[in-house]
Amino acid sequence: MTERSLRVVLAEDSVVLRDGMSELLSARGCVVVAAVGTAEDLLAAVAEHGPDVAVVDIRMPPSHTDEGIRAALELRKRWPEVGILVFSQHVEAILAERLLSAGAAGVGYLLKERVARTAELVDALHRVATGGTVLDPEIVTGLLRDGTRRNRIDSLTPREREVLDLMAQGHSNRSIAQRLVVTERAVEKHAAAIFMKFDLPPTETDNRRVKAVLTYLTETGSGA
Predict the structure, then answer these.
(1) So what's the pLDDT on residue 165?
(2) Residue 147 DSSP SS3
(3) pTM
């Protein structure tokens, strides 16, 4: 995004916060093409303006529960090229898992109270807009639940690490197979080996892929 300003759609139901963030981002060189207060308006704004990234609060009208994250999931489905930064005061690990399960590339989740400077927010927006992943450590901890143990990356074979790196970029097993010129079955075997080495047994929700990616991002320093 060096040749032009980052184009941002901002979704925040608090008028004061919305106006304040718009001014701060504009002062840092971003172009806030739309600032809205509902999930419905967020989807309409992205459809109209085609931004580089959308900043989304989780709890929005009318119920103030998960409207924002549901809108973010819809954005991922309809406009996968648009980066999404969830910017909330709440740690919602289950909702974060739903968003990340669609692919970690171009996704961020930061806590409002832990962003000390506008420059940090702008940097996160640029990283997400260019396909990176930015996660607050509290979000990672909430998703992993059992904590992160170091050096598990070192236990992977070079091929397993390639597979995990592509997982972290948001590729499906089919896409990984095409990129590595192997069969989907081979990718599945590598993924199973990764899950075993990371001590991620099958669960009812089968969220091992998300946890493996989060472990990788944490231990390699690729996340927040």
Answers:
(1) 82
(2) coil
(3) 0.67
